[in-house]
Amino acid sequence: RKGQIGVLMSRKMIPTGITIEHIPERATLDITSAPRRLQVWIEVKDSDERARVEAERRVICEGESVGKNFVCIGTVEYEKNEFNHVQTFPINAAGTVTSKAVVRVWSNWGQEYTCLYRLRLHGEDKGPR
Question: Where in the cell is the protein located (predicted)?
Fold first, then answer.
């Protein structure tokens, strides 16, 4: 594992996508710090809801959970050789409302460290936290 970042959102949402941005390959001498495989986890406090999300998702995440009440809802792979260095991926939260998310960088393209230039979580607004 290369790192993770937690997000405490100001509003509840149903996550629907994630955008990863890194410096373009054509603008750097070394692209190997770009993330490669990432996981998206959300907090689901209710145990019945957590079980439902786990049953409905079609995702297998590597490693241990990021926390007691978290479930993995997506894995994505950032492609360092793509012309577009801003890449958006759909994720399926199975309609679950959350206000906490964690993005785990599971691997990168070879460097000892990983750089994330911008990370955006997209979703359906469900009101104040």
Answer: Membrane
